[in-house]
TrEMBL record:
This is Transforming growth factor, beta receptor associated protein 1. GO terms for cellular component: cytoplasm; membrane. Residues 23-300 form the CNH domain. One of its GO terms (biological process) is autophagy. It comes from Fundulus heteroclitus.
Amino acid sequence: MSVKAFELVPAVERHLLMGDKARINIECIECCGKHLYVGTNDCFVHHFLLDEVPSPKGKPSYSAQKLLHKYLGLKKPVAELRAASALERLIVLCDGVVFLVDMVTLESVPSAAGGGAKIRGVTTFCVNENPVNGDPFCVEMGVLSSRRRTVQIYMVYEDRVQLVKEVNTPEQPCAVSLDGYFLCLALTTQYVILNYNTGASQDLFPYNSEERRPIVKRISREEFLLAAPGGLGMFANAEGASQRAPVSWSEGVIAAAVCFPYVVALDENFVTIHSMLDQQLKQTLSFRDGHVLQDFEGKVMLASTKAVYVLVPLPLERQIQDLLASHRVEEALVLTEGAQRNIPKDKFQVLHRRILQQAGFIKFGQLQFLEAKEHFRKGQLDVRELISLYPLLLPASSSFTRCHPPLHEFADLNHLAQGDQDKVLRCKKFLISYLGEVRGTDAVNGCREDVDTALLKLYAEQDHDSLLDLVASDNCCVLADSVPWLEKYHKCVCCRVGSPLQGFSPAWGGFQEGMIFMFYSSADLIPLVRLLLLTGVHIFTRRPACKGQPEVDPDQVIAYLGKHSQALLLYLEHLVLERKIQKERFHTHLAVLYLEKVVLLLAESPRDEGRLTRAREKLQAMLRESSLYRVKFLENLLLERATLHGKLEEHDEALRILVHELRDFPSAEAFCVWASSGRDAAYQRRLFHLLLAVYLDGAPPGEARAPHGDGSEMEMAAVDLLNRHGEAFDAVRVLRMLPESWSLQLLRPFLNRAVRASMHASRTAKIALGLARSENVQLLHDRLKERRKPIFVSEKKGCHLCHNTFSEPDVVCLPGGVPVHVHCAAQRVRDSPTKRQLANSSNHT
């Protein structure tokens, strides 16, 4: 998809360059700051001063003033020009000769013109824009010779050139670009990268230079742009890898340049502009007879045979806004993120947030709410910008004004929906969801009143279940706006008198202020009662700690709430589950209330299975996690009795209840997992073997045992148990327990796992045994080394036991290598109470 990224602006018109001389053509150009140099086919160099002229309409234009032109004295066209501004020199290639010209006078430098400082036999050259020489008054240059398969590295000074390196190539090079020590070359049949310092070479890809003109362009530090077969522009770094996807341009491209984030390519009839970020074609400009395209310090210039033009990039912000205006959100975001390297960090963050917010509103207008929410979140949108689209949702006291320039094109929700009520409803549901998510985050700091009031209005209008939760919670709803809205939609409300801003926030310390209760239908009575019940419990559970006031005694509260089982249940949950009070009476009381609720739900007809499941899950969790309740008060329901038996370590009775009375096999397995958690593997194995034995028994006590192999439910449960928890069993013991009539195919998962586990254990044991043997051999080796050390005895040394000197070489060595007399060692053994022999005695001397 197209976007206007550049404008083609004339810089040097034909009449200014050549007057009425029709045969003069432009061959090359060079720009250094405001100075433009043009080389022509009649061996002239023209010097222009190029100024950008401001336009009242904002369109760029240039004014060119011709300063000088100079004939170089040769009969061939000027092939290439490169500026060395630090030296105030132009490097000129003409008729296969490279020489230096003064940038101001265009006169050839005398020493370079006279005595051998010229470089002859040159086909092309390039300047190293990332020089390795630290001399600021020296330019590094790579030169291709027409006579040899070499690349020559020269140092160019103010009045001389010096050859410093010559690199041989496998084929004749025809194009070159230089960055640091890296040479990117187009050879006759392929592209390569050479490091002329180390000699390392990396082939890139094949290319036939006879079919089309090769392009080798340095675009950044150690990165190059190359013309590849198939009309592709390939990127390659110094390691020979490509970190960007290629761009697809035409087969006839003759020159290319980069103005980040765009690649500009020139062919015979067009200038094409592709994005480096998404590789898409963004713009095409008609341009005939073009044959020169160069980028000079961010300025892209191109030339036909008769005139010079500048491709002026439009500001990135304008490009991004154009993309957003045409609802091309993804392209705008890619361009924004890609432009980060060219924009100061603080400015970029502000720009990026705004673009994300605009993108979010575009997606919102397209009803793509997930994408809109993500853009709003990343862009840190002031949520009131979104609320303000909905008429009357912001409270009248709000001081909010919309951002300028605006983030979107919508006046309000009605303008967006154009009368489509389904769109309106979907947008309101999205706002409810979005406000509910951000309400507790930092995104609403400073505007809680606006957010809570808008959310309450939406809840009331849409008859939302969360209205009472909002009213009962700490909120900042504006009373003056909220009460009329609730009255309009006939919703009950509980609010404090005399609190204009926090009208729906109860006083948790007590009902010191008057309360107003309003309801408009009998259907509102039940939720109102629930609200009042929750609010009453909150008086005790959310009561702030105040200095000088005694804490509320939980026993008194429990006694006060005794007639209100639901309120009492909520308060006990607060004590046990939230405050973690470790008192037996509270835990027992809560467990009994859970049990009573389960019993009541079981007695209902018809049963509410959802409520029953939730109640039993609460009871089961309480029985498992707490160890403070009294078991004897809870022996009622079978499932709960099984858990209690597990607490008492009566696992056989617990499994009997689960398997034979309840026929609840998943719960039986879950019981084994729960009861063995935190225990060792042997304990877990005992439990699972016990469950397997219960399954294989097949009948409760007192009943006839079912014959094996009848496909009973118990046998299938046993098979499932083995296949699911095979690692918990002793495979040999299981095989002895199983009936001989069972098919091995049924137990294939268990047997596979058992064989693997057995092989793993065997191999692990062998490894451990091998390591132990290796350690033992090493210790024996160390011992032998110690025993074979020489023991030095002399007349100057004394016995460690009798302290007399040695007169004979025969000694006994005690542990630690201490020599003693033979008779002293024998006496020591005789005097030992255990008569033990010396373990480490040695007779060698």
